Amino acid sequence: xxxxxxxxxxxxxxxxxxxxxxxxxxxxxxxxxxxxxxxxxxxxxxxxxxxxxxxxxxxxxxxxxxxxxxxxxxxxxxxxxxxxxx
Length: 86
Description:
- The protein has 3 helices and 5 strands.
- By secondary structure, the chain is of the alpha+beta class.
- It has one domain (12-85): Alpha-Beta Plaits, CATH 3.30.70.
- The strands form 2 sheets. It has a 3-stranded antiparallel sheet with strand order 1-5-4. Strands 2-3 form a two-stranded antiparallel sheet.
- Residues 13-84 form the Inhibitor I9 domain.
């Protein structure tokens, strides 16, 4: 269903590489969640071809890499991805 009041937004999964893991008592998952909380936009869930726009941190975080390297995979819209660049 198309509603002219909405601009459809496409979601992609991005892998955010944050470098090598440190040897100290660092919690990668907590850090990844904090970063995502800062960039996620509070948006209404919009169904588009049976795909839902993530509306929360748990919906957006796909995977937290904490063994081979420091990073995470997340479902983001373009504006959210651009915030990560800064």
